[in-house]
Design goal:
It is found in: Membrane. By secondary structure, this protein is mainly α. The chain is built from 12 helices and no strands.
């Protein structure tokens, strides 16, 4: 049906020619930001309850519209309507909606249990991924550069484990458990340096210096890979 195709064009990420789609994306991003406000307030009041009620209604409508056009997105015919609720973004949509829905029905004893999951409303932040073209570009960069990033990640994990093992055996008094040594190695690798656990012996200090120096290089690698991939995607998009 033509109306479903027009609807799909609006609710999907906007292109430069579709003004309604761009307006819809901006509206949804504003709604997402507003929906987070109640989470920043410890004691709920009428205003925060109203904000949560209005935003969750909009999210429900958005979810229904996306479900109605699932076949246009997944392109699997009627099977798309059954598969869509299990796609990553649809799961995020549902998880961000359910806590508010169950809180609205908190008079039922069974549904009161779902109060424990009200924190899941924070997942609404991830809905921004759908409406931001830049974030989608970054996701594509991670997908294309995943092999290089996995290698760097493996290198970082290996270095953390080796550094932790060395420090755990060199300074047994300072690091009572291997987890403490891993924590120290991670902090040193990222050059954060909280200072709550640190080496006291000369050998330990030398290892710390080496760890910090190598940490700068290892941390810089993924940043360079992502930046290069992002610029490549930007240039490719501009050339189209």
């Amino acid at each position: 049906m033509k109306w479903r195709k027009s609807l799909y064009d609006i609710i999907e990420v906007a292109d430069e020619q579709n003004t309604l789609s761009k307006l819809y994306d901006w509206m949804m991003m504003i709604v997402i930001v507003v929906s987070i406000i109640p989470l920043a307030v410890r004691n709920a009041n009428e205003l925060t309850q109203m904000l949560d009620f209005v935003t969750v209604i909009i999210f429900i409508i958005d979810y229904i519209l996306r479900l109605l056009t699932a076949d246009l997105k997944l392109k699997k015919g009627k099977k798309s309507f059954a598969e869509y609720p299990f796609t990553p973004m649809a799961v995020i949509d549902l998880v961000s909606i359910l806590p508010s829905v169950t809180l609205l029905n908190s008079s039922l004893k069974l549904l009161r249990l779902f109060r424990l999951f009200r924190t899941f409303r924070v997942f609404r932040v991830f809905k921004v991924i759908r409406y931001s073209k830049s974030i989608n570009i970054i996701i594509n960069v991670f997908k294309k550069q995943r092999e290089a990033l996995l290698v760097v990640g493996g290198l970082a994990i290996g270095y953390i484990v080796i550094s932790a093992l060395i420090m755990f055996n060199v300074e047994s008094a300072t690091f009572p458990s291997f987890f403490d040594a891993v924590y120290w190695a991670t902090v040193s690798l990222t050059t954060v340096g909280y200072g709550d656990i640190y080496a006291v012996s000369t050998i330990g200090k030398v290892i710390t210096m080496l760890s910090s120096v190598f940490g700068i290089a290892i941390v810089a690698l993924p940043a360079g890979i992502v930046t290069a991939g992002y610029m490549e995607e930007i240039n490719k998009d501009e050339s189209l």
